[in-house]
Amino acid sequence: MAISTDHLVVRYGAGNAAVHDVSLEVRRGEVVALLGANGAGKTSTIHALAGEVPAAGGTVLVSGEKTSAPLHRRVRQGIGLLTEERCVFTGLTVRDNLRLGRGSVSDALDLFPELHDHVDRPAGLLSGGQQQMLALGRVLAARPSVLLADELSLGLAPVIVQRLLKAVRAAADSGVAVLLVEQHVHLAIEAADHVYVLRRGKVVHDGAAAPLRGAPDAIAELYLDR
Ligand code: ATP
């Protein structure tokens, strides 16, 4: 199992837990969508998997290592993290942004040929969609074993989101384990093999993506809070 959490708890300060009880698994070659309303605990789960917030309870394993392991051991986990912030340096050229990654510039451009004509321009001149291609291309060119993608589609048109998800799907097909947090629920379900739905920090649905495709009523049902 490339990614697994078992009864994960995440707490900020002394307040209520943001994540109460999340157990999930992602295998290599699989895209798993982590869905749920705002504040359900999706980002907190991703942050715990990336080792950015400690687990207050339960366990988190990525590539067989605890995310609480020292950094030099966690490097071997091969985590590719794409956060909502994107981390594109707008004053640097596209090429220099790609050089900041651990992969090669040409691998990133092979993944997103759309960036070719812009490679010597400042990244700040790219559209939002192109900037996200840059961020995703940089992460995937490093050949991670695990991709944690939080809100890949934030503020982007559905046609761009589909393009990005196609690249994510291709990465999974080449053996990456992908955990995808996504507001575009229908597009995420199209791209995913498996779906978890969180509500108030807990897993309330765990099942294959296929039965949810083209089933808006079934999806709406998962989001109902009762
Ligand atoms: P969204 O889609 O809005 O990002 P989410 O499902 O990703 O939602 P989280 O961001 O994980 O949910 O938030 C879960 C809960 O934890 C929320 O109640 C939120 O207010 C709280 N929370 C998140 N980050 C922090 C933080 N840094 N400090 C304190 N509370 C936080």
UniProtKB/TrEMBL annotation:
> SUPFAM superfamilies, per this entry?
P-loop containing nucleoside triphosphate hydrolases (SSF52540)
Q: By its UniProt entry, which Gene3D superfamilies does this protein fall under?
A: P-loop containing nucleotide triphosphate hydrolases
Please name the InterPro entries in this protein's record. AAA+_ATPase, ABC_transporter-like_ATP-bd, ABC_transporter-like_CS, BCAA_Transport_ATP-bd_LivF, P-loop_NTPase
Transport among keywords: yes
- PROSITE patterns in UniProt: ABC_TRANSPORTER_1, ABC_TRANSPORTER_2
What's the short name of a Pfam family annotated to this entry? ABC_tran
Which residue ranges does the record assign to the ABC transporter domain?
A: 3-225
Give the record's keywords alphabetically: Amino-acid transport, ATP-binding, Nucleotide-binding, Transport
A GO term for molecular function: ATP binding
The record, for PANTHER family, names: HIGH-AFFINITY BRANCHED-CHAIN AMINO ACID TRANSPORT ATP-BINDING PROTEIN LIVF (PTHR43820:SF4)
- Family assignment from sequence similarity: Belongs to the ABC transporter superfamily.
Protein name from the UniProt record: ABC transporter ATP-binding protein
Source organism: Nocardioides cremeus
